[in-house]
Recover the amino acids of this structure.
């Protein structure tokens, strides 16, 4: 039996993003089950993950369910000590755990005022003092972590770790709401937006269900602040260069076109997540480049 992870809408469920990154970013396979928030399918999904009341919820291969993102991080770290979920150096590991714990329980003003929404970016967002205080606190602890761990790369405690996983949805808020931060914090946000696992999650979030009105705000919009993806578009028919979906291996029924070439997929979701950001899907890019040896995603 594999790991089985319950998640909500990818565009909006920030805790689901954290749970999923703990698998994808560290190369741990899992089977994902998604339900749309604010519908009957969401409590029905959670009923299969009792006693969980929220997402992410993880069913372990031997059957028990754990339903807290910090617990998931710790359990995966115990089971996969070579994956790099926490830093190996004890001091850096302690700092990473401190950061994750503060994110887990804090920054309520920022979370409530600027809910995660990966489908839109705003500008001119009015910021109450508690939100500004949360932003300053983020910069303080991010700078502290880098100084303490002597991290010279883009991440807080050396290599990418669970500490960065826990701040990924905050990075999307800073980017998506055009929030004021200094150059070091802005560079950290940019690193999150460029991370392949985050880009895969956002590509899926753009196409995995209808917009959720609860997460919309009546503020001016702007383009999402990342480089434009490779140009691709959905098309009605083939013929495709491939007979089997690059993700599932099943026969193709849905098609995209990229630079005049057509490729097939087994369903609309497989196609549409690829159209959203083709370059972040290794098996599609292997097909595109004519290399069949890349790992599936």
């Amino acid at each position: 039996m594999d790991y089985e992870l319950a998640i909500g809408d990818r565009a909006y469920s920030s805790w689901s993003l954290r749970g999923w990154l703990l698998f994808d970013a560290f190369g741990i396979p899992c089977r994902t089950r998604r339900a749309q928030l604010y519908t009957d399918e969401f409590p029905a999904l959670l009923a299969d993950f009792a006693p969980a009341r929220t997402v992410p919820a993880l069913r372990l291969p031997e059957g028990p369910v754990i339903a807290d993102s910090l617990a998931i991080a710790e359990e995966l770290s115990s089971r996969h000590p070579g994956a790099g979920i926490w830093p190996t150096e004890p001091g850096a590991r302690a700092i990473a755990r401190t950061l994750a714990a503060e994110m887990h329980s804090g920054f309520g003003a920022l979370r409530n005022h600027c809910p995660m929404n990966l489908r839109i970016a705003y500008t001119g967002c009015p910021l109450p003092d508690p939100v500004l205080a949360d932003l300053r606190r983020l910069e303080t602890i991010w700078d502290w972590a880098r100084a303490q761990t002597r991290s010279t790369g883009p991440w807080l405690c050396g290599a990418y770790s669970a500490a960065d996983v826990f701040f990924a949805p905050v990075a999307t808020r800073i980017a998506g709401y055009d929030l004021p931060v200094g150059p070091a914090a802005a560079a950290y946000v940019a690193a999150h937006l460029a991370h392949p696992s985050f880009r895969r999650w956002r590509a899926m979030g753009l196409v995995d269900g209808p917009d959720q009105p609860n997460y919309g705000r009546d503020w001016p919009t702007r383009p999402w602040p990342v480089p434009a993806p490779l140009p691709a578009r959905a098309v009605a028919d083939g013929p495709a260069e491939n007979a089997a979906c690059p993700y599932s291996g099943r026969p193709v029924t849905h098609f995209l076109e990229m630079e005049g070439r057509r490729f097939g997929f087994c369903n609309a979701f497989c196609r549409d997540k690829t159209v959203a950001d083709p370059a972040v899907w290794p098996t599609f890019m292997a097909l595109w480049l004519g290399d069949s040896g890349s790992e599936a995603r």
Observations:
- The beta strands are 4-7, 31-34, 57-59, 65-66, 121-122, 221-222, 233-235, 254-258, 261-265.
- Residues 90-201 form a domain with the Glutathione S-transferase Yfyf (Class Pi); Chain A, domain 2 fold (CATH 1.20.1050.10).
- DSSP finds eleven helices and nine strands in the chain.
